[in-house]
TrEMBL record:
<dbReference type="InterPro" id="IPR050469">
    <property type="entry name" value="Diguanylate_Cyclase"/>
</dbReference>
<feature type="region of interest" description="Disordered">
    <location>
        <begin position="520"/>
        <end position="541"/>
    </location>
</feature>
<dbReference type="InterPro" id="IPR029787">
    <property type="entry name" value="Nucleotide_cyclase"/>
</dbReference>
<feature type="domain" description="GGDEF">
    <location>
        <begin position="399"/>
        <end position="531"/>
    </location>
</feature>
<dbReference type="InterPro" id="IPR043128">
    <property type="entry name" value="Rev_trsase/Diguanyl_cyclase"/>
</dbReference>
<protein>
    <recommendedName>
        <fullName>GGDEF domain-containing protein</fullName>
    </recommendedName>
</protein>
<dbReference type="Pfam" id="PF00990">
    <property type="entry name" value="GGDEF"/>
</dbReference>
<dbReference type="InterPro" id="IPR000160">
    <property type="entry name" value="GGDEF_dom"/>
</dbReference>
<dbReference type="InterPro" id="IPR011990">
    <property type="entry name" value="TPR-like_helical_dom_sf"/>
</dbReference>
Amino acid sequence: MPQQLLDAGSPEALLTRAMVHFGHAEHAAARELAVMAAASGDQNLRARALTLLVRCHQMLDEQVEALALARDALEVCWAIGDTASEAIVHATVARILLITSDPVSAMAEIMTALEVAEGSGDLTARMTATATAGTVYYYLEQLDHCFEFCERAAEMARMLGDEVTNGAMIDTMACANMSLAEQARAAGDETAALALSGIAQGQSREAVEVARRNGHRRYEVTALGNLAESLAFCGRTEEALELLDGWTQDPAQDAPSIVTHMLATHGAICLSGGRYAEAIGHLRAALAAAESKASEMTAAELLADAYERNGDLRGALDTYKIFHSLSKTVASEAAQRSGHIAVVRMETAQAKAAAEQERARVTALQHANQELLRQSLEDPLTGLANRRHLDELMAGGLSGHAILLVDVDHFKRVNDEHSHLVGDQVLRQLAVLLRDACRDDDTVVRFGGEEFAVLLSETDLATAASVAERLRARVAAFDWTSIAAGLAVTASAGLALGDESGDPSVVLARADERLYAAKHAGRNRVHSPSSPAEQPLEPVLHYPGAQLEV
């Protein structure tokens, strides 16, 4: 073993440390440790180290190096049958191809990653491939598919306890909602545009908190910038600028790309708000701090616009010349990089199979993707419909319907006293009890964590309350000791009628309020509407799956 490895620790320890650095967005440090770990003679460990190295190079914008290393990583994975690492490498290659403007190849690569990940049976590999698919679909502007894959990846992340990936998926969905908001505004539907931007703001706020909680500075800054942009979109420019003014650069943690991103975002919002002098200051700083020609080009283009709007035509012209020169350089570098990438991809394809076989495989995977999309509407643990499916059902309104939110009482205690495996069995059994107690045209949904939703069709208050009480009683009466000795489970529920509001989110908020009222009133009970004259509530929900002591 090389002396450097002996001094630094075992290869396994090195790889563990590298993964910790990667999880905190410290990609250069992770790369150095992964290089040492990859020198191990253990091929299983080498496959994982090379896979992490590919991801580090990609995050450091070393795309050609990442692709060249991906070829080596795949060969090791194929030799030892490590399909989990293989899937992650394919997913990373898909990101690279997307960045380098090759969306067709990126789609083929992510289909491969999804198939290999599914076959591996490894939940982390499935989550990584699914999360990347959500990103690919976002950049291809196929937003329905983006939501489906992001929500599925977020659910897998929660099952794994991976808060960072969960937060990243929440913020990706925030970006997708902002794209929909921009489309709505372009179509003249300002009401929808503001509603969608409001959803995006809530998601970005959640993503910021998740990133802060886990010390992931890059994701925190990205989500913070997205939040500021969504606030500015709906006319809350001052609030957006106050948010950005509150961000303090940390030279020890913030890479130049993070600093440039925040400065450019600050400048763009000032520009859109008519604060041209401030915009010029931020954009000049972004231009000076830019870590790449592409970032310089973006900052220069915005700065030229700011100078022009501020009446400084000379400054605008001089800066536009810089932008024009940078755009030619970036285009030339992109062409050269594409050439390198094409060579590396050809070598990788030849190492795996003939080009004709690969094309046939991609075609088959496209068909398989239809099945994956169908599964994206299902909860993987219980087989119930998921939150995305519920949103689709509620989109047409809830008039004449009712919504019931059901939550397991003291579920944390079940996990702590009997194990998470027993907790999963409880959720699966509860899904069966809920389905059996409902009518054929009712829909049972796993809302998130230990919380379920039941959409009751064509019902009035008396009928809905009767169904809700029947559900509660069946849960309480079930022999839970058949799952674990000494186990007892009850559930609380909150009921709301669709006619309480024309906005489904308000109806859902009412059910949520009543669920927590039932919890606070002693649990194992149902809370229904107290009177038809009840005042409207603001549509603010806790995020499904949030860990609350209930």
